[in-house]
Amino acid sequence: MSTDTFPIRRVDHVRHYVNNARQSSFFYQHTFGFSISGYSGLETGSRDEASYVLKQNDLTLCFTAPLRPGHPMAPLIAEHGDFVQDIAFEVDDVDWAYKAATDRGAIGAVEPRTLEDDHGKVRHAAIRTYGNVVHSLLNRDAYNGPFLPGFRAENQPGDGIGIIEVDHCVGNVELGKMNVWVKWYEDVLGFANLISFDDKDISTDYTALMSKVMASGNGRVKFPINEPAEGKKKSQIDEYLEFFGGAGVQHVAMRTDDIVYTVSRLRARGVDFLSVPKTYYDMLPDRVGKIDEDIDVLADLGILVDRDDEGYLLQIFTKPITDRPTLFYEIIHRKGAKSFGKGNFKALFESIEREQALRGTL
């Protein structure tokens, strides 16, 4: 039995830096069904940035926007567009975690500090990972406020769609850098390489990529890391790196226990998803065997299915949710399967290539 050398309780929240936090929050509230539960801005004494906290079950998003010219994140938003800047971890001991990470080679972003208000104290630090992404380290055991000190509670309910928690977050890195960051997660955070895919697994006639899935010691946090591979045309990873301006978070997978309900609600609210040919569903019974869901319903919604030794999963991917072809979301429903839909890669990537062709970036 291997020991967990860097205990992480869970993904605490995912923070996006955006040009307009109010509008982003409105979009996620009214399309993805999140409830706005916290706010920080000029009215709460935050002079430099405004933030909205959105929750749905165990998934928390935070959208933050600069309030003044000269804010240090403003040039990064200009470079990347709206982007995921922080995948924050809840840990037992922030000081130990920060020291362990930096002793093992991580670059510190924020040294351990105590944040405090009338609701109690939160210990916080942060380390840098690929691109301009950081991992905050948080412990809020002595805190009972809405999010973090300095935030006031908000009660703007969303009409939830059954999203439960973060399943995994995927990073795209430059050619030749995948193994560098795989080693970083192994050495610094004690992650293990769960699954590897090479360009023979993940390729079409035109594009290819390589991917390794890293998992924390307790298996609760999973981060696939992608890099481009040589292909006849520009891959989706190349396209991402070009339009994002370097390495960054490609997509966040949100877990549901009723994907038909979740996707039906999202489609009704105008969310666009990647689509696969109807022939995909003709071959589905032979490929994945018996499943509980009606295949005609899955075909109507465009939901993909894959099976591994422990069960099956259902998944679907949105089109990019910003103007740039960068950040998108995955909705995933696991019925025992621990894998990531390898059997869907070819159909999925051909779908992405059709979108790239429409954008003129293939």
Write a brief caption for the model:
With 362 residues, this protein is α+β, with helices and mostly antiparallel strands. The protein folds into 2 domains: 10-156, 2,3-Dihydroxybiphenyl 1,2-Dioxygenase, domain 1 (Roll), CATH 3.10.180.10; 163-359, 2,3-Dihydroxybiphenyl 1,2-Dioxygenase, domain 1 (Roll).
The number of domains is 2
Rg on CA atoms, Å: 20 Å
Based on secondary structure, the structural category is alpha+beta
> Tell me about the biggest sheet?
9 strands, mixed
Q: How would the global form be characterised?
A: globular
Task: Classify the helix fraction into a percent range.
Answer: 10-25%
Report the span from N to C terminus. 46 Å
Walk me through the topology:
Elements: E1 10-17, H1 21-31, E2 35-40, E3 49-56, E4 59-66, H2 74-80, E5 83-90, H3 94-103, E6 107-117, E7 120-128, E8 134-139, E9 152-156, E10 163-172, H4 178-189, E11 192-197, E12 208-215, E13 222-229, H5 236-244, E14 248-256, H6 259-268, H7 279-282, H8 284-288, H9 295-301, E15 304-308, E16 311-317, E17 328-335, H10 345-359
Parallel strand pairs: 1-4, 5-8, 10-13, 14-17
Antiparallel strand pairs: 1-5, 2-3, 2-9, 3-4, 6-7, 7-8, 10-14, 11-12, 12-13, 15-16, 16-17
